[in-house]
Amino acid sequence: MAPSKNIEVKGTVMFAQHAHIDLTSSTRRSPRLLELTAKPTPFYRYKINLQDEKLVIWVENQTTKLQWSTGQLNKCDYVTTMNTIHQFSIEDYVELFEDTLNCELSDTSSTQRSLSEIDNGALKLELSANIRFPRSTSVVKYVFVLAPVKVDRIDVLESKLLDQEEVTKQIKERNDAAPAFIQLKAEMKDDNSNLIWEEIDADDFVSDGEDGIVQFRRPGVYNIGGVVNTAACGREENFELLINGEIVQTYYPASLGQRYSSTTLCYIARLEEDDELTIAADCALYDTSHLSVMRLGS
Question: Which domain of life is it from (predicted)?
Answer without folding.
Answer: Eukaryota
